[in-house]
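## tool: complex_structure
## caller: assistant
## args:
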Amino acid sequence: MSAYDVAAAVTDPEMPMLTLADLGVLRDVDVEDERVVVTITPTYSGCPAMATMRDDLVRSLQGAGWPDVDVRVSLDPAWSSDWISTRGREALREHGISAPGPAPTRTGAVALTLTPTRRELTCPRCASAGVEVVSEFGATACKAIYRCPACLETFDHVKEI
Amino acid sequence: MTDHDSVYDGLLGDAEGWAFGTDFEDPLAGVDTTIPAGVDAETLAAYCLMLGDDALIHSHRLSQWASNAPDLEDDIALSNIALDLLGQARLLLARAAAADPALAPVLPEGSPVPAEDALAFFRDEHDFRNVRLVEGDNGDFAVTIVRLVVASTHRLALLQHLAASSDAVLAAIAVKGVKELTYHRDYAGRWFLTLARGTEESRRRLLAALHLVWPLRDELSRTHPVERRAADQGVGVDPAAVRDEVDAVLDQVLSASGVERPDVAPMGPVNGGTGRDGRHTEVMGRLLAEMQVVARAHPRGLW
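## result:
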């Protein structure tokens, strides 16, 4: 396997159905002589999974015969939920997590929204359309919590940023 | 190959010495931290420290709601907001230390504490540069909400302008922060509205909170000499320049909530200085004592 393939197969510690490549966190894998330089972009400023991602990348690459691994951070451009791949979105749905819609595009001052965020979502379990938001904040920074009145299940929705 | 049954198993390095942070030794690893032309490194560092301390201290206050909020959803919401601010603080303090390494306190030899942690945990009260607004006791839930409305509205406007900073690192941190502050402000604004339009009791508490918090608003847009220099050098934003923008959003929240703008005098400087000069209110010492005690007891980070 190439260094890129090894790095791309490492999974996200919080959402292990996604690889770092599917999540869009993996930005670049460069091989210079024997050294692998991996570049990742944090999803959120305070994402506590960054250290685990870094260590998992180092361990996986070392295990695949690349002893010298350097993991770097790239802050620009900022991560967007639009970077989650089609395969990643499919994997989220298969695991009962609703995938994000298109990230908002902004021009000028950011508008204040005092009404609940509106999203056209369907329940990832029963495909019912009449779902309700429970909270814009879920178990991880990237998810909101929804409830489906049809099947009575709650589910996570990956937020659009 | 990667086993996530235990978070500690996934971490490399010496588990015996694992104490500080999550061992990602540098949040700016591989990021070009060269000082842009025409920018004085000390000004850039002092400016990042102000922005970083606002985020760090507010984050600490908000994190105190964990397990204490009115319900589980708000517990999680406030913790998430605290986490975003902590992440912003970490990047900003790391940026400050990279620009001016002399800023970080000197620790005993062999200490594994990275520069941003040295700044967070080993500075004394008078070296913190946050506005007094963010250090206040959480008090009533309404106080926390009003403070979050004011602080996030200001920070969102400021970071939007900072996206044009001549320092590429600061600009990138700001662009990222705008995405986060957008939902912080929406969350706080919705709660403001709910409390104002809720019961007689929730409205009474909201109005009391507004009178308590409003005098501290002025300090956010009072231009400090460091902010002036940073703005002049193209690396920072003069906070006075975003005042109208901030006021327009705050008026929108007040008007939707049927609440009058409070007629209270701003809290003035103390001996000519504010939080930006390291002059803090009485609660700051207790906040720092709680936040710093473990790190200070173990400067080598081994236990």
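## assistant note: Residues 50-63 of chain A form the longest helix (14 residues). The first strand of chain A starts at residue 26 and ends at 32. Handing back to user.
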